Amino acid sequence: MHEVGWGRAQRWRALVDRFGNRLIAANALLLMIACWAPGSLMVRSGIFSGHIEHAAAYALSGALMYALRAGRSMAWQVALLLSAFAGVLELGQIFVPGRHASFDDFLFSVAGAITGVLVSAALLKHGHLGGK
């Protein structure tokens, strides 16, 4: 049984080594498009508030990014990097027609990033994501 789990971890690491940086870049590009699309093209779920959408997007991004960087970066480094990226994207909205930068949106993005990283770290620590 332990060997099966080890094989899964090896396959995960091989996939991460091959595609991890591309997935992180694709995720960053999606966040950038979502944040910097003009207000007339902005899409909202209609189910949740904008703050919850920010937190969810960055929680998923944080979880993905940490899962891909586990063993190479510490959780606080991933959370800090993603939070800084959220700040840059939020400030960039000043220059986008129909959008505005909001400190509240930034705080929800940071909270989501930290939550996602911590959940991913906990799952990896307990072996639920096929990490080390």
List the main descriptive attributes of the protein structure presented here:
132 residues, mainly alpha, 0% strand, elongated
Short description:
The protein is mostly helical.
Account of the protein in words:
This protein has helices at 2-36, 50-69, 75-92, 103-125. With 132 residues, it is mainly alpha-helical. It has one domain. The radius of gyration is 16 Å and the shape is elongated. The mean pLDDT is 86.
One letter per element, helices H and strands E, the order comes to HHHH
> What's the total helix number?
4
Helix content: over 70%
Ends apart, CA distance between termini: 16 Å
Rg calculated over all Cα atoms: 16 Å
Share of β-strand residues? under 5%
Structural class: mainly alpha
The rough form would be described as elongated
Mean pLDDT: 86
Q: What's the SSE blueprint?
A:
Blueprint: H1 2-36, H2 50-69, H3 75-92, H4 103-125
Helix pairs in contact: 1-2, 2-3, 2-4, 3-4
